[in-house]
Amino acid sequence: MLKIEKLKVKVGDREVLHDIDLQINDGETHVLMGPNGSGKSTLLMTIMGFGTYEVTGGRIVYNGTDITHIPVHERAQMGIGMLFQRPPTISGLKLEKLLAAVAGGKTAEVPAYARTMDMERFLQRDINRGFSGGEIKRSEVLQLMVQRPDFVMLDEPESGVDLENISLMGTSIAHLLQKDLHIVNRQKSGLIITHTGYILDYVDADFGHVMIDGAIRCHGNPREILKVIKEKGYRECLACQQI
Amino acid sequence: MPADMSEITELPASEKERLVQTGLEFGMENRCGSFFQMDQKILQSTCSAEGVEVLSLEDALQKYDWMADRYWNAVKKDKDKYTEFVAGQKHPAGVVVIAHKGARTVYPVQACLYLAGGPVQTVHNIMIAEEGAELHVISGCASAAGAKSGSHLGVTEFYVGKNAQITSTMIHNWNPHISVYPRSAALVEENGVFISNYVCMQPVARIQMYPQATLGENAVANFSSIIVAQPDSYFDLGSRAILRGKGSSAELITRAITKGGTVISRGHILGETEETKGHIECKGMILKDGIIHAIPEIEGRVTGTELSHEAAVGRIARDEIEYLMARGLDEETATATIIRGFLDVKIDGLPPVLQQQIDAAIDAADSGF
Q1: How many angstroms separate the CA atoms of B111 and B171, rounded?
Q2: Which of A77, A87, A90 faces B328 most closely, judged by CB atoms?
Q3: Which of B83, B87, B133, B307 is deepest in the core (most CB within 10 A)?
Q4: Is-above-0.90 flag for pTM?
C-alpha cells in the first residue's frame, strides 16, 4: 500500500529525516515509536504532503503511484487519512459543516458516527474551540470515520484522552483499521505514533519501528520493542543497531 | 399608503435583484410591513401587524404630537454637516416605525431606500419600540447599478422603551461611485435590548458612520458588522456604547475582509456606571493587499465597570487550509470554507438571499495566498 524509499526531508534549512525506508502492505498496522523531536510527526506530515516539509530526496509511493509531490487533498482523495495530534481551531466552522463537506453529500451516517464517538453535542461547535484533549481526539476519529481512508495515520491518538474514553478511542480506531475482520480480509492499513503503547491494548499492530534523530533505527515486534523501551529506554535501541 | 407601486414593479430585473440582495421581499413573504423610498419619493408605506405602524416621517409628525420629542433627539441636528443637510430639507423623507406598547412582531418590517438617480438621497427614520414591545427591522439600502455619482445621507433614531427590544439589520448594496453617510443613535431604556447588524460586501466609494447606543439600567446593546472591502472601497466604521445605567452591557463585533480596499474599524465603549460590562471584538482578514485598521477604545470611569477588547488582523492560517485539505477538500474549497466560517457571526434576521450573496462573494474570492 505505502512504500517510502530513501526519503530525505528538510524543514527550513535543517534536514530532519534522513534516508527513511518503510513499507506498509495492505491490511498491516505499523507502530512508530521514538523520543520527542525524533521526527515521527514529521514523517506523517510529509506523507500527508504539508508544505512546511520539503522532500529533498527519495520518494513516497502509494498504491503504485508516486505521490511525493502531489497536493494534500489529492492524497486524501486517494485514500490517505490522518488523525492530528494538535489540530488547529477554525473560528466559525462548525464540526457538522466540516463533516458534511468531508462526506461529500453522503451524510446519512454522520449522526450515527457522532453518537458512537459521543460527539453529538459538539456538532454545532467551532472545530476544536474549547475542546479538551480527549474531545479533540474523538472529533478527529469521527472525521476519519466519515472520510473512510484506506491508509490511516494516527499521531498519538491516546494522548490527552482520559481512561474512560481510551477504550472508545481504541475500539473505534480498531474498527477504522478493520481489526474486526479476519486478517485475510483486511484491506486497510495504519501507521500509529505512540509513546505509551496504550493503543496496542485495542489495536493489534503487526510491526514496530523506532525513530531516533530522524532515522529509523529498529524494526520488530511492537510489544517487544515497547517492553525494551520501557525497561531500558531509547538508548538501548540506539545501542542495539539491529538494522 | 402606496403612491405609485408601478415604479417599483417596473424596475428592471437586474435592479430588482440588487434590492433583493439587501433583503427586500417584493412579495412581502415573511414581512409584516414595508416602506419603499426611491430617491426622495415614498412609494410604499404599509403594515399588517397589530400594534405596529409604518408611516412616512411627515405623516407621523402630523399624526402624533409626541413625535416631535423623538425627532432630532437621539441624533442631534448639529452633529455634523451631514445631519445639518438632512435637517435643512424642506420636505423631510423617511420612515417611522412604531411598535406600540406590548406589540411583538414575528416577521420584520422592511425598509428599502433606493438611490435611483438623484444626486443626493436624504432619509430620516425613527424606530420606536414602546414599553414591552419587540420590533425587527430590515433596512436595505441600494443604488442603481449604473449611477455615476451620488450620496446617501441617512439619519436613524432608535427609541427602545422599558423591557422592549429593537433588532435592526441593515444591508448595503451600493456601487463604486456612491458615498454613504448614515447617522444613527439609539436610546435604550431600562431592561431594553438593542441589536444592530450591518452587512456590506459590495463596492462603494466611501461609507462613514459611527452609530451610538446610550443604555439605561440593565439595558443591552449588540453591534455586529460584516464588511468586505472591494478594491477602491473605503469604509470608516465604528460603533459606540455608553453604559450609563447600572447593570448595562454592550458587545461590538466586527468581521472585516479586504480584497484591496480600506477598512477603519472603530469601537468605543464608555463605562460610566458600576456593574457594567463591555467587550469589543474586531477580526480582520487581508485577502489582497489593502488596509484593515482596528481602533478599539475602552474607557472606564468607575471601579465597577469591566471592559475588554480583542483585535486581530492577518491572513488565513496555512495550517487551517492544509487541515481541511487533509480531509479531502481542494485548496479553493478549503479557503472558502474558512472564510465562510470567519464571517459567521450569526446575524439575526439575515435573509437566505443574503447568505447566498455571501457564498457568492466567497466563491469569487481569490485563493492565492
Answers
A1: 10
A2: A77
A3: B133
A4: no
